[in-house]
């Protein structure tokens, strides 16, 4: 628990399931004021679930929606102290057989979405004098290559480039920008990837799962909470001298 996070305003983008849901719950446990934004929510205006928990619709790939949410947060005195961008999608296919439309769709959410979130919410922080934190959920796919995932791999490499650049540009404003690079995390998206990736390779989803486990030195795949714990660390006073970093949460699978 970090008492310093009490009543801090935390915007979590991509929050309805998996890692995003765990991040929301972790900040609520630390008594922060959390705004959960996700394409799955119907509320265009902020919907108060409780005095410290709000939900709102957001398609992170749409600039008009990101701008509108940024303005809404300014108008309601809810400019975030911490922004966590978890939103991401993946497609499965070998590069030479893949659809250009799938590549474009993945980039729209994973990379363009990260760019838009960084641009508008960081601008709001700067305009209101907030010495904030921006935390991007990238992936170990931002450091390695993986068969059947060219669009996802490329998009997450690009996210790390955005993080490194923005960290330099906002250092004078004392806004810290970092990334978390999860490995194999047990989420709905990972379960779908095993089915689709297995079909590409002639393997069952269970065979892919066993292969996943075999690649992790710690002998298990990760949980959304494993990732949320590192997000919490980056948002806490313990990480006050860190910016431009990409922290692995991979059980030792990726070590660079």
TrEMBL record:
InterPro entries according to UniProt: NAD(P)-bd_dom_sf (IPR036291), Sc_DH/Rdtase_CS (IPR020904), SDR_fam (IPR002347)
MF terms in GO: oxidoreductase activity
A single GO BP: bile acid metabolic process
Keyword annotations from UniProtKB, A to Z: Oxidoreductase
SUPFAM superfamilies recorded: NAD(P)-binding Rossmann-fold domains
Pfam family, one: adh_short_C2
CDD domains per UniProt: SDR_c (cd05233)
Coiled coil region boundaries: none
Family named by the database record: Belongs to the short-chain dehydrogenases/reductases (SDR) family.
Protein name: SDR family NAD(P)-dependent oxidoreductase
Phylogenetic placement of the source organism: Bacteria, Bacillati, Bacillota, Bacilli, Lactobacillales
């Amino acid at each position: 628990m970090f008492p310093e996070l009490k009543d801090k305003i935390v915007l979590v983008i991509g929050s309805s399931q998996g890692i995003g849901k765990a991040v929301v719950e972790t900040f609520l446990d630390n008594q922060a004021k959390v705004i959960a934004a996700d394409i799955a929510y119907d509320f265009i205006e902020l919907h108060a679930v409780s005095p410290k928990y709000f939900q709102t619709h957001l398609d992170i790939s749409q600039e008009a929606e990101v701008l509108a949410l940024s303005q809404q947060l300014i108008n309601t005195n809810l400019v975030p102290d911490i922004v966590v961008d978890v939103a991401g999608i993946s497609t499965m296919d070998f590069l030479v057989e893949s659809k250009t439309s799938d590549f474009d769709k993945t980039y729209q959410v994973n990379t363009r979405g990260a760019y838009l979130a960084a641009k508008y919410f960081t601008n709001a922080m700067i305009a209101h004098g907030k010495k904030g934190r921006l935390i991007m959920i990238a992936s170990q796919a931002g450091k390695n290559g993986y068969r059947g995932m060219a669009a996802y791999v490329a998009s997450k490499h690009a996210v790390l480039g955005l993080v490194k650049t923005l960290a330099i540009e906002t250092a004078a404003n004392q806004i810290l920008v970092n990334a978390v690079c999860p490995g194999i995390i047990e989420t709905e998206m990972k379960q779908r990837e095993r089915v689709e990736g297995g079909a590409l390779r002639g393997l069952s989803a269970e065979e892919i799962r066993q292969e996943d486990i075999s690649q992790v030195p710690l002998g298990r795949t990760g949980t959304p909470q494993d990732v949320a714990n590192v997000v919490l660390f980056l948002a806490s006073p313990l990480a006050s001298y860190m910016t431009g970093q990409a922290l692995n949460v991979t059980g030792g699978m990726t070590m660079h």
